[in-house]
Model the fold of this input.
Amino acid sequence: MKRFSLVVTVLLVSLVFATALAGAEELSIRLSIDWAADSGRGQAIQRILDEFEKDNPGIKVKLLGGSQDTQNLLTQIVSGDAPEVIQVAYRNVKGLANYGAWQDLTDRFGDNSDLYYEQLWDLAMSNGRLYGYPWLGHTIQLVYNKTAFEEVGLTRAPETWEELYEYAKKLTRDTDGDGKIDQWGLGLVGRQHHDITWLFNMFATQAGAELVKIQDGKPRVAINSEEGLEALEFYVQLVQEVCPPDTELKTGGEVMADFRNGIVAMEFQGPWGITDIWQSGNPFEVAAAATPAGTSGRGADVGPYMLCIPEGITGEKLEAAYKLIEFLGSTKGQELIMLGEKGSDGNFYPFRVPIRKDMAGSEFFQKNPEFLIFIEGLAYPSISTPVEAWAQVEVEVYQSQLNQAVLGKITPAQALANIERLGNVILNQ
Done:
């Protein structure tokens, strides 16, 4: 009888233990990203999640894809069924935090600020509290045709605006001797498009200009300044003298195609500017360097993605969400980013870079130093969306006025005056 009781007890304990394990295995959370889950980038992130699940056998993560614009994010959160962790562009962290969309991460992750450049960390802060955790991203830097450089006797990248102009003039040339220019020094965006705004913003930052200033508690357009005028006049000069004649039609993707095809010798791109050449069979040797410094120093457009936890996530799901963020931000998680996405040739190429500043010493960057600059650029960021309402200014005013200046239909001074006048109407609605 005693033996029977012992057996029953053992069986009951085993059953309870098995049930607990089953319950742990059933704990499922979701990670929503800004790309399709079945895309190359989605598959790359899934490989990272597979490693997380190996380290955390009681947690399963379902990967969800889709656009993370402001309205879509709000819809997810208001529905009451938002994913436990959401990849959020930096420009949507502060604004939605003010609506109470995100959980305060300060107590859990606030001590990690030293791992990141101060300017980057601040993008996830609102009213002194942390609402997004930096995960992955990019900076825009100078990508150049090293082979073309060598052909004209250039041995290093330009370091200043003056050198950028001089180099671009030297690289604008007739390479086949038919009397026509077939290689231009620089590719810039001229089309009325989002790409012209972030690209020009880099020049504005390098000149010491600001997009917005807060006056009497309200945002005001600040780009119409001596510094802003200096930047736009230089940008237009480059377009007119050292860029292809159809620059007013070009987006960033079309500039990248011009670079790949040898039509321009320099461009401003993220890490994909390097991998695009690799995937194209290495038609020439490619290299990357810091953006040339203007009168106020360097400035590089940044595109960091943060990890946010929506309000309403509680209990075991919340703790699992914390663990996922901890893993993705860890040294191991950050290194896995560089495994990259699968290209058409079957090889894997980085599509973004880790944004912890201490990752520069990792093995990948030792073997691939051309990518280091895309982390280092986080130290001198050009912020394209300083306040939430600027996104509307960009679409309704900024893009068109910059395009008109590039076309020569209005002067740079007129463009900036129009941006100030029309932009302030939007900012103060």
